[in-house]
Design goal:
Layout lengths: L4 H10 L7 E4 L12 E5 L12 E4 L2 H11 L3 E2 L2 E2 L3 E5 L5 E8 L8 E5 L6 H7 L5 E4 L8 H10 L5 H18 L1 E12 L2 E4 L3 E4 L8 H11 L15 E5 L4 E5 L2 H13 L4 E7 L5 H11 L8 E8 L4 H14 L6 E7 L2 H10 L8 H13 L11
Parallel strand pairs: 14-15, 14-16, 16-17
Antiparallel strand pairs: 1-6, 2-3, 2-6, 4-5, 7-8, 7-10, 8-9, 10-11, 10-12, 13-15
Length: 384
Amino acid sequence: MDLFEFEGKERLREAGIPTPGSAMVYEAGGAAPLPYPFVLKAQALVGGRGKAGGIKVCGDDAEFARNASAILGMDIKGHTVHGLMAEEMAKPEHELYLSVSLNGEGGKPLLIASPMGGMDIEQVARERPDKLLTLTVDPFTGIHAYQYKMLAELLPMAEAEDLIATVDKVYAAMKALNATLIEINPLGVVNGKLVALDAKVALDDDAARLNEGLIAKIKAGREKLRGYSEPERENNTITFVPLCGDVGLISDGAGTGMLALDLVGDAGGTVASFCELGGITTADTMYRAMEKTRAPGNTGQSQLIVLSGGFNRMDDMANGITRYMREHAVTVPVFTRMCGTMEEEGFAIMKAHGLQYHTDLMETVRLCVAAARAPSGDAFGEGR
């Protein structure tokens, strides 16, 4: 779950990390929320707000009214702005970069710091790698003394005690929030002290049960963002792995998929991509699996779909397959093995659309591999 800047800064303040004073603005035409001058920032879950015109300085009532009207409702890379954060002006002597994420080796926390804050960190890595420090943190022992020393040497413009305290608070907040990312860019040195001038925070979706109270609080606050709706998330997972082979493979279970992968190899074929559907699978999930597997570069010379209906219904799977085939020009033969819950209904749907279906796994694999190696089959044809 990605947080808006105002939500992320609230989490930082709760962790004891200083931020500029701020107030939220949800509609144009009201009184100024802060003494002038202040910065008006679009609240959108996307970068590039400044370049898009979503960050403006307001020096008087006229500027505030004009900027609020212009930014509210603005579209920034597909994200509509439903709220603004008015924030006190800060004049940092230096702008630093600091983040902690869970992208480290072996799933360990990764701490990244740079004296070149305010820039895209990927750009710093490309152009000035000497100005970038990446440290892997041991989750059992925490940040070591030698790592603090390396940070202090890279960022001498910050007081050592203040720097260590800030890093400790960011790391502690990450653990307390079950976050996958806390990024402060820039982390400003203002009057000699570190202040978070921006905040990007992402919570771990897999830890939602542990964060129930926090998530409820965040969602309650978002009700003030008029017109904003939470993005829909899939209830089912799709695991997709591109490979180098000639048979695209979709299965509705990891065990079935691994068996099919082995059978493809035994039949003399190789898998072009492996796509596994997790959980209770719907027709829409099957459709999206077809999109992933048939995308350019992942095609293969034939398509193998292996389905075993337990909780999942074969009529739903058939509806997803047939809809995709109707809407796309599929030029390779598609071989579908279906068995289990509602299989007869699934067979009827496939047959009504002129699509092949099979019940014997080994026979289906043999036919699919043969078609991939000497493609002369047809994705459409008589049922069975």
